[in-house]
Amino acid sequence: MISQETANQAADTLESIIDNVETVIVGKREAVELVVMALVAQGHVLLEDLPGTGKTSLVSALAKSLDCRFNRIQFTPDIMPSDVTGFSIYNQKSHEFEFRPGGVMSNLVLVDEINRASAKTQAALLEAMEERQVTVDNQTYKLEEPFMVLATQNPIEQYGTYPLPEAQLDRFLIKLSMGYPLLDEELKVVLETKAAKARIAPVASAEQVLWLREQCENVYVAPAVARYAVQIVTSTRSMKECSCGASPRGSIALVNLARANALMRGRVYVMPDDIKYLAPHVLSHRIMLTHEAKVNGRSARSVIMSILDSVALPGVTENEMRNIEEQVIQAHAVQEA
């Protein structure tokens, strides 16, 4: 459990990152917050939308806001797995094989248009996203922390795209869509974005990101709140509209992101409302709808919203959570003394 002072400090750091990204990304506060939360929750982000809506600009702005290494991999039908993970090359001078790192060897990795590459190349990301390592020629190479993959994709109905398999989708913490800006927001983008991109500078270091991740892990989750999250996830497996529900990885992801949301709000504990707000973002891409549900016009998000309406909120009031907070803070103070 972290102290309130530490939570406030973390919230200020997160606010500075979000505000810095917003100098470039106009009118998309929620999307920016969710991406930053995913960074703190040690997750990966999938951005799906039409070309030109700011997906790549969002990732670039986040990378420039952090003093971390950044690589971009442009996925195309002819890109090879070795371009992602790296490869071994024979050095004629030393008479030994040397490892040449691929694009995934970085802190922040932008995988642009991930669904334009073949399934074999897409699969090259699986080990890196889950185990934070790559294996080349029976040698395992650990990835430098913090590590995060931010992938963009065009809607699968467009030409030259390959749908992501379920195992790949499940490794993304959240899936977001940017959407078109409002008229005034688009006018501001036209007039100011180029100058804003030139001015943006880092406001947080890699060490601060690791510190934020450590504090996020220590945000308190009451058993009743964790049970609420698990009930939502397990309900996806019994819905008649779902041919395949979310896995336990979905439960873990939902609780982790809720911790990050609480930390961003300056709280040292997770509320049930955190779970309810984040569930559509975490679970919509983890379920498969039946053919009948699709014919009836149901979407994954609408199914998740139906589940949220049917699962009762846990009997934990905000006052009870504050009492828990005070007790843990007192215990934290005694421990420090």
Give the rounded overall mean pLDDT.
Answer: 89
Shape: globular
Q: Which secondary-structure class do the elements indicate?
A: alpha/beta
Note the main sheet: 5 strands, parallel
**Count of runs of 4 or more consecutive helical residues:** 15
Radius of gyration: 21 Å
What distance lies between the first and last C-alpha atoms, to the nearest angstrom?
16 Å
Count all strands and give the number: 13
Instruction: Give helix % range.
Output: 40-55%
Low-confidence stretches: none
Q: Main sheet: which strands, in order across?
A: 3-6-9-1-10
Determine the strand fraction and express it as a percent band.
15-25%
Reading the helices and strands in chain order gives HHEHEEHEEEHHEEEHEHEHHEHHEHHH
Describe the structure.
By secondary structure, this protein is α/β, with parallel strands linked by helices. The protein contains 15 helices and 13 strands. The chain has a 5-stranded parallel β-sheet. A hairpin with a 2-residue loop joins strand 7 and strand 8. Helix 1 crosses helix 2 (29-40) and helix 10 (223-235) crosses helix 11 (248-264). It starts with a helix and ends with a helix. The model has no long low-confidence stretch (mean pLDDT 89).
At a glance:
By secondary structure, this protein is of the alpha/beta class. It has helices at residues 4-22, 29-40, 55-65, 81-85, 119-123, 126-131, 166-169, 183-199, 206-217, 223-235, 248-264, 272-283, 291-295, 300-310, 318-336; strands spanning 45-48, 66-67, 70-74, 86-91, 96-101, 108-112, 133-136, 139-142, 148-153, 174-176, 204-205, 242-244, 288-289.
